Each structure stands twice: as structure tokens, then as C-alpha cells.
Amino acid sequence: MKEIETVRKMFFEEGKNISNIEKESGFDRKTIRKYLTKDDFRKEPLQDNPKYAKLDGFKLEIDSWIESDKRMRIKQRHTAKRVFNRLKEKYQDFGVSYRTVAYYVKEKKREIFKTDNSSLPLLHKEGESQIDFGKAQFMEKKVLCDGSYLTLSFPFSNAGYTQLLKGENFECFTYALNNIYGHINGVPYRQWFDNTSVAVSKILKGHDRQLTESFVRFKEHYSFEAVFCNPNKGNEKGNVENKVGYLRRNMLVPMPVFDDINIFNKELLNLCDKDADRIHYSKKENISELFKEDMKYLNPLPLNPFSAGSYESARTDSYGKFHMDGHIYSSSPSQANSTLTVLKTHDEVIVLNKDYKEVVRHERLYGDKIESIKWIPYLTQLARKPMALKYSGIYEMIPKSVKKFMENGNKSGVLKLLAQLTEESDFETAIYSIEKALEHNATDLDSVIALNRSFKDIYLEPMKLPDYIPSLNSLNIDIKKYDTFLMGEK
After folding, report:
1. pLDDT higher for 291 or 436?
2. pLDDT of residue 120
3. What fold is seen in the domain 309-374?
């Protein structure tokens, strides 16, 4: 990937053509073209600066064509020949030679595509963005999360977009930016970052950075230029620093409370659109109108969004559990003491078998919760071989109440029932049902099923009756009295 990045940087950022790249990198032309096929621009060789007096009346137009190429796909970029032909078609008296036009086009491309690492500009053009994380708490499904939020701002217009996250890992990073790019229907062609570990693995001398391979893939997928601030120089991306605080105060206060973070994030993007309907603090124009200028300079979206997941290998113990990012997840008994493949997304950990088929899916853990166990794979497999239960490492994981319930000899039936009830409700409710059955000396499976269903919150839509049926007074029945009677209590 480093070789691909080097070639693409020489091509897209430094303006070098394939011949120059071939000489400097040692790669053959076929390999270079292969590395560049997914990109949007072609570069021309650099030439010395001649005098172009005959082009004085045409330079602004030529410059605008070349400048627009920064946002175009590779096959729609102006060559010197195309510039020359367009001028001849438009101006009947155009008498400048092709050679003069070609030299000027090459010189102008060198100027436009030249990479200057000497300093980081503080004034930003249309279509450029800055990106940063902030910290925020929120409540999802009644659980308090100490999370983060990623903000992307446009310094030219002062528009900004944010997404709430449970962490600051690569999967959260790409999930948030995928959402923002898709919402605005484009990608900022140049983006400023701090030296986050998501993107930078090592800070080198000067302005160079050793980037993580995953970030390079993300950057090349969306064809943008990444620029990194100097360490401890927050002023170099001051716009997003201010935007992080502004959006927290205006959109995350009071603390957000919701059931689904994905739905809430869609609402956040719409709120950010509405927020742009106000006057810019210094330009005295509406931010939404200024943002239209930003949008003209966005790179087009690729056919498919970047995959916001990553694959990792994990080694399981004798219980089929594995450690990942400081947390413990379960797989299945068949994968105990083995190496498996795991697909991580911002909100899920998906265990795959050797054929890359899904075995079990976990909600990804963040914060203080240490362990996630999905019992159905264990229970289903053990139910097939109940006699081997005591000799497996899984036996130690089973609660005491279940072991006691299985003493009546129907181990397979109990395990199948436990799997069924876990799927219908959850493992904790299934165990509670068994414990309650044992309290009343009920050792049959039907009693456990009845108890489990009694713990569920059942809601039925009210029946709509025809108008000709008279209304009757409702009956209030205390069914607890029946429980008392059936259980022999006084």
C-alpha cells in the first residue's frame, strides 16, 4: 500500500506524469497505470517557464479549465491538446501555436498541483474541510455512554456536520465520514486532520507522516488530499476546533437520549443543515449560500461507500471465548482453542467461520462492560451431544440452577428449551424462569415455558368494534389471586 500511496501522491499531488514516475519510482508503466485507475486526474510533465505574451487574452480561461480538473475524473481531464482545440473552436482568429499552448498548460499545471510542505496555510479555499473529535455523554436504550463525536467543518462557509460515536477507533471514524459524505453528496478534496492514531502511525521529520494502511485505503477510496497539523498547533485547524464546541453546546445539550444511535445520527445531519441557515460571523452572508460554493468543489462520490468494517484474527480459549480491544466475546464450542476471523464495525463484532459465514453477532462493547456471551451457539451444539456436556469446558460456564434442573435426566430437552427461550427473550430471563420453577419444585419443561412467557411484557392493540355494539364497563381482575390459589399460598 505504501508503494501505491507514493505513486498516487506523485501523480495527484505533485503533478508528475507517468514517465517521470517511472523514472523516479522504478515501477513499470503498466503497474503505475494500475495504481492510478481508481483516481480522478492525470498529471503532465513539468517544464521551464517560457513567455506567453500571445496568450494574455486567454490565460484566465485556460486557468479556470485546469483548476476545474482538480474535481474531475481521470478521463475527463484537460490535456494540452484538448485546451488547444477548445480555444480554436471558440475563437476563430486564435493564432497561437499548439507548442505555446502546451508549454503554458504544463507550467500552469505545475503551479496548480505543486505540493508546498513549507507551511500550513491558515486561509482555506472552497471545498476544503477540517476534521476533529470531541467528547460527549449520551444515553442509548437507558444505558449511559461516555462517547465521542466527529465533526467535519468547512472553513470557507463555516458549515459543519457531526456524528455521535461510542469510540474513536477507525471503524467509528469511517462510519461517521461515510454518513457525512453521503449526506452532502460529495467529498472535500483537501482535508485537515490532527495527528490522530486512526490516521498517523508515526510523525516523521518536517511535515511527513507515516500513515496507517487502513487510513491510506480510506483516503485513496475517496480521492482526497490529507493534510496534517503540526503537533500542538490547534490554531492550524481553528475552524473545526470552534465548531466542535459550538455543535456540542447547541446539539448535544441537554444530553441526548435515544434508542438507536444510527437513527439519531441521521437526525443530527438534518439539524446541521438547518443550522447553516444563519449569517456568517464575518462575511455577513448566509452560511447555506456560502456552502453552495463549497459544494461546487467537492469530489464526486465513488460508486460504493468505503467499507466501515475491518477484519482481524483472534485466538479462542477452551470455552470458545476471545479477547479483542480489552473486551471478551464468545464464539461457539466448535471454535474453542482455534484461530478465527472477526469482522469489526463501529457497533458490532461478527464472528465468522473458515468459510466466512456468520457464526454469531455481538454488539460491540465500549466502556466498563467487559464480556459479551451469546449462548445460543453453545446451547444448540450441546443439545446435540448432552452426554459430552460434563467433559466440555462449557459445563463450567452454565449457571448452577440449570445444572440442578438437568438432574432429572432430560439434559438435551433442557438445553434445547434454554436455547429456544434465549432466542425468544434473552438468556437472563430464561435462567430466571428456571430458577422460579425450581423454587416451586416444578421440574417439567412446560412449567418453565409458562413462567418465561409470564415475565414478558405483552401488548395487544385494542380491538376496534363496530358502532352498533354497545359499550360495556371494563372488568378489573386481579390475577395475582389466581397465582396465590394455584401455588397453595394463603
Report:
1. 291
2. 42
3. SH3 type barrels. (2.30.30)
Q: Within 13 Å and on the Cβ side, how many CA atoms surround 287?
A: 19
Q: How far apart are CA 128 and CA 144, in angstroms?
A: 35
Domain boundaries, the chain: 2-113, 128-296, 309-374, 382-490
Q: Please tell me the distance from the alpha carbon of residue 341 to that of residue 344, in angstroms, as a whole number.
A: 10
> Do the beta carbons of residue 167 and residue 196 sit within 8 Å?
no
Query: pTM to 2 decimals?
Result: 0.64
Max distance between CA atoms of the chain, in angstroms, equals 111
Which residue, 148, 155, 162, is CA-closest to 238?
A: 155
pLDDT mean over 52-58: 81
Element housing 189 (H / E): none
Half-sphere exposure in the Cβ direction for 81 (13 Å, CA):
0
Q: Which amino acid is at 43?
A: K
Single-letter amino acid code for the residue at 453: R
| Residue 393: Cβ-neighbour burial (10 angstroms; 0-12, 13-18, 19+) | middle
Question: What number is the average pLDDT over the span 255-273?
Answer: 95
**C-beta separation of 155 from 293 below 8 A:** no
Helix runs in 141-279, H state only: 170-184, 213-222, 238-251, 261-275
154 with 129: CB under 8 angstroms?
Answer: yes
> What torsion, rounded to 10 degrees, do the Cα atoms 154, 160, 163, 166 define?
70
Residues 6 or more apart from 452 whose CB is under 8 A from it? 421, 424, 425, 429, 430, 433
Confidence of residue 459 (pLDDT cuts 50, 70, 90): low
- Measured CA to CA, the distance from residue 372 to residue 365 in angstroms comes to 8
Which of the listed CATH numbers 3.40.50.10320, 3.40.30.10, 3.30.2310.20, 3.30.420.10 matches domain 128-296? 3.30.420.10
Q: What is the DSSP string of 298-322?
A: PBPPPSSPPP--EEEEEE--TTSEE
Distance CA 383, CA 371 (A): 24
Mean pLDDT of 247-262: 93
Higher pLDDT, 76 or 441: 441
Going by C-beta distance under 8 Å and a sequence separation of 6 or more, which residues neighbour residue 235?
122
Query: What pLDDT band is residue 482 in, cutting at 50, 70 and 90?
Result: confident
Q: Which three cell numbers stand for residue 226?
A: 490529507
Look at residues 413, 412, 430 and name the one whose alpha carbon lies nearest to residue 421. Answer: 430
Check if 128-296 and 309-374 are the same fold.
Answer: no
H-state helical runs in 151-231: 170-184, 213-222
pLDDT tens track for 158-198: 999 999 999 999 999 999 999 999 999 999 999 999 888 99
